[in-house]
Amino acid sequence: MGWVRLRGEAHPIPVGKIVCLGQNYAEHAREMGNPNAPEFFFFLKPASAIVHDGEPILIPPGVGRVDHEVELAVVIGSTARNVPVARAMDHVLGYAPLLDVTARELQAQAKKQGRPWTASKGFDTFAPVGTVVPRADVPDPHALAIELRVNDQIRQRGSTSQMVARIPEAIARVSEVMTLERGDILATGTPAGVGPLHPGDLAVARIERVGTLSNPVRAQPKGT
Q1: How is domain 3-219 classified at the CATH fold level?
Q2: Cα distances (angstroms) measured from residue 160 to each of 59, 89, 192
Q3: What tens digit of pLDDT does each residue of 97-129 get?
């Protein structure tokens, strides 16, 4: 099972599931071929995909192109089921930088065949996540600079103000479908500029007031 750690706390918090908002930045939706205003939808990544700061992203053999997607992760602090928007933030423990790593060719193939994206999102190491910053330390999570550098070159840069569905709405809508529990992660979408990762790269995510997440990229040895 994956886990996260709250800054200043010694004990890790188990993560049950990662709920990812799809195309929650309009410019990213357009670069993915959707010129219209994105509609709210979400998908799941397994908690077993989690790795932490400094740990490698492993590219499995034969998967083709693998892309980075930097995101603000919202970590749930208490059980949320059918939560109204006005009370949604009461259930937030804190925030962390996250990379939603995606096997893009597998995802494109799944889309074409009308099948789920699970395989393209769910490989081990495909969800690097940083230390969780308490909610009180981030007064406005919708006004944060967010960026991703690969080998010290900027690939993605934006602001969480560009989210289509803001955090309270997202928590409310997801909690209508499934119960969110302590430790669950809501990945809030990525700004434009997603691109490929290769063995030997170093991916560094930075989110204002939240922190930095750094992960080397390696080829996964065959048979492991």
Answers
A1: Fumarylacetoacetate hydrolase; domain 2 (3.90.850)
A2: 28, 16, 12
A3: 999 999 999 999 998 999 998 999 999 999 999
